[in-house]
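Reviewers of the previous submission asked for a worked example of the structure-prediction workflow described in the proposal, so we include one complete record here. The input consisted solely of the amino acid sequence. No template or homolog information was supplied to the procedure at any stage.
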Amino acid sequence: MRSISLFLWLILIGGNANAQSQNIRLEDYIYNDKIKTVLLYPALEDPENPTRLLTPAIKPLTSPAPLVLEFDDLSGQFAGYRAKIIHCNADWTKSNLNDIEFTFEFNEYPINDYQQAFSTKVPYFHYKLELPKLKLSGNYVIYVYSDRDRKPVLSRRFMLYESRVNIDAKARFSQGIQQQFSDQQIDFSVDYKGYPLNAPQTDLKVVLRKNFRFNEIRANFKPTNVRPFDQILEYTFFDLENTFPGGNEFRYFDSRSLTGRGFGVNEIERSDEFTRLMLFPDKSRAINAYIQTDDFNGQYIVDQRESGNGSVEADYTPVLFTLKTQQDPEATFYVNGAFNLWQLNDANKMTYNVATNAYEVEMMIKQGVINYNYTTVRGGQKADEGYIEGNYGATENDYDILIYHRPHAGRADLLIGYRTVEWNRRR
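From that input alone, the workflow returned the following structure tokens.
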């Protein structure tokens, strides 16, 4: 009788969780304005090493180092949180797998590691969770919800991969005549020796991604040449489907110390409530404005120089961004970067200030070194970073290649191959 009751209880809990997960956006997203600085990265030996944040949330399935989730709650009040994991297909739709098919334990993880901010003007609680080991490779979304009302507060994507196939790849200037100075091209091949494919021409799902961004991907590739005896698939295109606009090196500012002005900071305004930063005004770099500089390819680090403990001693500062450009009623401008999860929303939407003849927006950002750029949306068109930043073939970028396969009689896509490619790396 007891086992039957337990079984019914598990079904009930699973049903509630599934109903809840239907309201989850299977993407990087923050549902509560009080949640800031959501980080997900492979763990390093030094948990406070700022460079840990520059590594994308992807790791080998069998790696002993866990992925680590961190976030801040700026409500100033302690809150209990729990996390749940969803397995997704290659296109980030929810897979048909049951929790028990990809988890080793009950799929609900209390977040018990938390600290209160120390000596900051803006109070917050910092939360941390080491993700559990999982059984299968593929795409996943972890979402966090409140203990109090079970409403989601954030969701983040991550991936686990197996090296079942080998990928050979190279990046170069685009072969397009008009794109050779502005775009970059990724050519690659897949060696599937020892891995069974029933139909090599169509079995694999291939995704190219620029700078680890989900809003910069190319997909639905078919091999241009199949070599069955060598068990190699070649992907060399001539219609530019494997090219990306080069973009420009990212702008950045340094707020690791608030005792003086860091790089990119024009003014500091101090009050009892917070320390406000006003950055130097930016201008368009779309025409002949490529300058070779080092950046984080749009990523950022959290750090507090005096303490070295950025997780709980880095303060939040209102940061004023200013873009000097003519008013354009047909366009909407955003300041963007990984610090905002590459989202275009009201938080980073700029408004035109007639007094300064510039677009402005103020955002609350945690101390660190922050990469950013400007994105333009015109009408119903796709967001365009090149309108303000320009596109240059020499821009240093990172690309990664993801190979998915659904085995015969399988019910989900597995990530069976992964490779990163650096273009024009100078350090």
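The CA atoms of residues 171 and 353 lie 41 Å apart. We consider this example representative of the routine output the project will generate in years two and three.
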